[in-house]
Amino acid sequence: MKQETQEQTLTEKAVTAMKDAVRGVVEDHRRRKRPLSTWENGKVVYRDPVSGQTVREDSVPYGKG
Q1: Could you give the number of structural domains in the chain?
Q2: DSSP states along the chain
Q3: Which of 18, 43, 46, 65 could cross-link to 55 by cystine, CB 3.0-4.6 Å?
């Protein structure tokens, strides 16, 4: 039987690479027990990588200056 393999488009490759990179960062933070920084509703939010709970929020003026 001949297997058909479809080659990924450049966009699909980029999305796959980004997902792999994020997975690696989350795993690294989990291993080091360091919070993950995200941007939500105009604030920097630090989350525990294991539980996902918010550890801290910082308001940062964005685009002003």
Answers
A1: 1
A2: -PPP-PPPPHHHHHHHHHHHHHHHHHHHHHHHT-PEEEEETTEEEEE-TTT--EEEEEE---S--
A3: 46
Q: Is residue 5 part of a domain?
A: no
What is d(CA 33, CA 28) in angstroms, rounded to the nearest whole number?
8
Contact 22, 14 (CB under 8 A): no
Check whether 51 has a pLDDT greater than 70: yes
CA distance linking residue 21 with residue 25, whole number of Å = 6
Whether the model pTM is above 0.70: no
The range of the structural domain enclosing residue 26 comes to 10-59
- Within a domain: 1: no
